[in-house]
């Protein structure tokens, strides 16, 4: 990457608002075209609810986002405008939520029987996540303008080591029930499993490699959970400072954004079934406590990972030399 390009990226506070405006106009126009011509083009919240009506609503919402971006350019730093920008970030993440989980889908060698990849929808969801990044930058620039801090680095702000350590440990602890349960199932135990067959693996969807690993006591998703634990520790331990900062921040924010809402849904669903408020969680072969504790742990993990990523971002931020 050339020095000129690096300088352009470093100057993001100067162009983030305009980029968010242009992106919103283009995304809204695409949604309007999809509503008028018929093809869905992947406009959907959480990957659901496609159709002309939804696409028209998406065009209206992102059109309103473009108006908000224009207002921020005219008068940056307003509390209401900045709050609205963060709302748009949430809307973008909701539109592109499935994209954050798509790497699992792309690991086709770990499973079979999946539905074919819808590349149009996948690309659209990726654009939505790009919009979340642009709007996040615009919102951050607006917040810093309102607080009077440096637009480029936010000023020198030391991270609290205790916060980092606690966030990492909480993230690790949150995945222990899931990892232990899936490993126990791979070893032949059936705690929390009420169905027939082998718990935690479906031969119709699991690849030969996945089945071979499972036969030897290794559950692929448990391995991925361990990778998540290592990521949380890398974000909060001194040895993690030797790893590429953009990689850690990208994985941290993506993981937090994808797993926190996913875990909230499962935790609430499991607790409602556990207390008898609803009859089933939709996972008929899983005890309610499994959904609430093991799967719901992704909620705590996502929140703690977000905190750990934020602390790491603050602790490794360099002086911009402009303030």
Any overview of this molecule?
The structure is a single chain. The chain is mostly helical and 323 residues long. It contains twelve helices and no strands. The chain has helices spanning 3-10, 12-37, 52-74, 79-95, 97-106, 119-147, 161-186, 208-215, 220-236, 245-274, 288-295, 297-315. The two termini are 26 Å apart. The model has no long low-confidence stretch (mean pLDDT 82).
Key descriptive features of the protein:
323 residues
What's the short story on this structure?
The chain is mainly alpha-helical and 323 residues long. The protein is 68% helix and 0% strand.
Radius of gyration: 22 Å
- Poorly predicted ranges (pLDDT <50, ≥5 residues)? none
Please give the alpha-carbon distance between the first and last residues: 26 Å
The succession of helices and strands, N to C, reads: HHHHHHHHHHHH
**Class from helix and strand fractions:** mainly alpha
**Strand tally:** 0
- Could you estimate the helical fraction of the residues in percent? 55-70%
Largest sheet: none
Strand percentage: under 5%
Q: List the total number of helices.
A: 12
């Amino acid at each position: 990457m050339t020095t000129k390009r690096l300088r352009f990226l470093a100057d993001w506070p100067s162009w983030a608002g305009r980029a968010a405006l242009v992106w919103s106009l283009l995304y809204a126009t695409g949604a309007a075209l999809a509503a008028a011509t018929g093809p869905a083009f992947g406009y959907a919240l959480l990957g659901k609810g496609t159709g002309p009506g939804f696409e028209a609503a998406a065009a209206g919402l992102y059109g309103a986002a473009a108006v908000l971006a224009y207002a921020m350019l005219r008068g940056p730093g307003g509390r209401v405008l900045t709050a609205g920008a963060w709302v748009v970030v949430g809307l973008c993440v909701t539109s592109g939520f499935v994209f954050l989980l798509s790497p699992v889908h792309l690991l086709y060698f770990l499973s079979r029987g999946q539905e074919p990849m819808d590349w149009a929808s996948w690309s659209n969801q990726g654009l939505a996540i790009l919009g979340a990044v642009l709007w996040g930058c615009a919102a951050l620039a607006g917040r810093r303008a309102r607080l009077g801090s440096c637009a480029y680095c936010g000023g020198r702000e030391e991270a609290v080591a205790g916060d980092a350590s606690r966030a990492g440990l909480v993230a690790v602890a949150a995945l222990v029930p899931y990892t232990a349960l899936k490993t126990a199932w791979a070893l032949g135990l059936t705690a929390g499993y009420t169905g027939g067959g082998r718990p935690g693996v479906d031969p119709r969807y699991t690849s030969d490699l996945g089945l071979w690993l499972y036969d030897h006591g290794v559950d692929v998703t448990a391995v991925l959970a361990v990778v998540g634990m290592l990521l949380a520790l890398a974000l909060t331990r001194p040895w993690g400072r030797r790893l590429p900062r953009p990689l850690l921040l990208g994985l941290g924010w993506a993981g937090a954004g994808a797993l926190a809402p996913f875990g909230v849904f499962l935790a609430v669903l499991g607790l409602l079934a556990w207390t008898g408020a609803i009859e089933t969680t939709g996972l008929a072969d899983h005890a309610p406590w499994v959904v609430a504790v093991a799967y719901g742990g992704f909620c705590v993990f996502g929140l703690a990972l977000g905190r750990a990523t934020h602390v790491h971002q603050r602790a490794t931020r360099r002086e911009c030399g402009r303030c």
